[in-house]
Amino acid sequence: MTMATIRWHEVSREDLLDVLLGEPSSLKPSISSFPSLEVKGGKLAVAYAAEAGTDAYLLPTLVVLGNEFAADTLSWLRVYADEVSPISQFARVVLASDWSAFGEATDSLRRVRNRADRWACVAVGEALAQSDGDSELQAMPLSRVSSCFSIPIGRTNLLFGDGNLVRQCVDRLRTVSQDQRLGRRTLSVDQLLPVLAIAGSAVLEDTAASEAALLVVEAASTYFAAFLRSPPLVSFNQLKNYPGLSSDSIEERVVAFNRLSLEVLNQDPSQFGETIAPVLAAAAFLVGRGTSHVFLLKRFGRVAPVAFAWFGVIAALAGPRAWDGAWLRAVKGAERLLRPNFDWLDAPSADIGWAEFSWLSSTFDGVEQLAGIPKMLPRTLSIEIVPGAIIQVRLGTGSADIESRVTSEAKARERALQEALTQFVSLAQRVKNLVEKQPVQANEQQTLGLESESIALSTKGARSRRRRDSSST
């Protein structure tokens, strides 16, 4: 896409409803350049494809809000034109600063010469970490990968290159991760930064499995030494204490990993923090000389979950030859989220754009406003963090969540009661059938006789009392 394929119109917020409903009669003649002065003055810029023509039913694909007037415009629309709030249901919505940074500054999107499968590897590792290692790789749904921070960061890198635009994406993801109304995450963006830096490196050639593991540990050791207040307690030298990890015998490699595991688990986690994660990931990778033994990290899913992400970036550098079947299928699934082309004039696939999400989350308390947005999934909201880069977030607790939970619990109790009653009736019917079919035993005959005799005596006594009572009267 180039700027020549876009035709711009300026509209007021009062006319936006008609424009979004496909009635552009109020539009002024289009122009080929972005109306920056008008947007700075409070107008909105709407974009159409240049070849769209002048049909009676014409929909815009992009709406640009001026940064200074965005909050006021969105508030006005919510009160006086609620039908088109949020605008993201009709067209892509961005701030003027985003258009300047991601649109005009690049003129046309360029695919960076980088490998999407490497970002996909990190995303698969992050998805395992976010589940505390409890998820099986073979059964892990692709939706879990789409909620990883690695996906929008990798997508931004692939579309726009490394630099300020990726940092802007990271800053926005950090804001999302700190929002208490959204689902809790095991990993934060900051924990992933060194992993993501390695994934976005310009080294395109694959590396031998053992070399990839050692290379990542060395890079992690350098990073922790530079950014932590104190030197890391574990480093590249930690692996040298376990030469069995380099043995040609798989049994010896497993034994060496178990020794390392015991040493880690016997320590106080606060003593080593996250610095042990790259060593654990490298050791597990060396055991299988590939991705086949990622399950060894499950025991550290709660102690050092970021080890899965480090494992992912080691697999990324080693390349497909080091991937087993389950890892390969998961990576190719995640890669489908990273490879699609992006065009400003495409219909947005996210539930809401960053401009409107940022305004909603900063204006309203509670989760109700976010939960009320039309969504593809009931409890999941997809946000376009930067143009072309989407993340799915799980909505957290709120009145709607509580109501849903209470309803589900009531239904569960009702189902349990119904099952119990069904079992009771079935058991009663079985007992009845057994009693009817079973022959009467001798002791049962005696019991029945005694009961009959007791009944007869009781009846006889009752008659005697009635006769005495009648004679006395």
List keywords for this structure.
alpha/beta, 4-stranded mixed β-sheet, 3-stranded mixed β-sheet, 53% helix, globular, disordered C terminus
Protein architecture, described:
By secondary structure, the protein is of the alpha/beta class. The protein has a domain at 113-147 and 186-339. The protein is 53% helix and 7% strand. The chain has 20 helices and 7 strands. The chain has helices at residues 16-20, 36-40, 70-80, 96-104, 116-130, 142-146, 150-160, 164-177, 189-199, 209-227, 236-240, 250-265, 269-272, 277-288, 307-318, 325-335, 354-363, 368-371, 399-437, 442-472, and strands spanning 6-11, 44-49, 62-65, 92-95, 352-353, 380-386, 389-394. Strands 1-2-3-4 form a 4-stranded mixed β-sheet. Strands 5-6-7 form a 3-stranded mixed β-sheet. Strand 6 (380-386) and strand 7 (389-394) form a beta hairpin. Helix 9 (189-199) packs parallel to helix 15 (307-318) and helix 10 (209-227) runs antiparallel to helix 14 (277-288). It is globular. The termini are far apart. Residues 398-410 and 440-473 have low confidence and may be disordered.
The radius of gyration is 34 Å
Low-confidence stretches: 398-410, 440-473
Tell me, what's the shape?
A: globular
**Order of strands, widest sheet:** 1-2-3-4
Computed structural class: alpha/beta
Region (Disordered): 442-473
Biased composition (Basic residues): 462-473
Topology diagram in text:
Blueprint lengths: L5 E6 L4 H5 L15 H5 L3 E6 L12 E4 L4 H11 L11 E4 H9 L11 H15 L11 H5 L3 H11 L3 H14 L11 H11 L9 H19 L8 H5 L9 H16 L3 H4 L4 H12 L18 H12 L6 H11 L16 E2 H10 L4 H4 L8 E7 L2 E6 L4 H39 L4 H31 L1
Parallel strand pairs: 3-4, 5-6
Antiparallel strand pairs: 1-2, 2-3, 6-7
Helix pairs in contact: 5-7, 5-15, 5-16, 7-8, 9-15, 10-14, 10-15, 12-14, 14-15
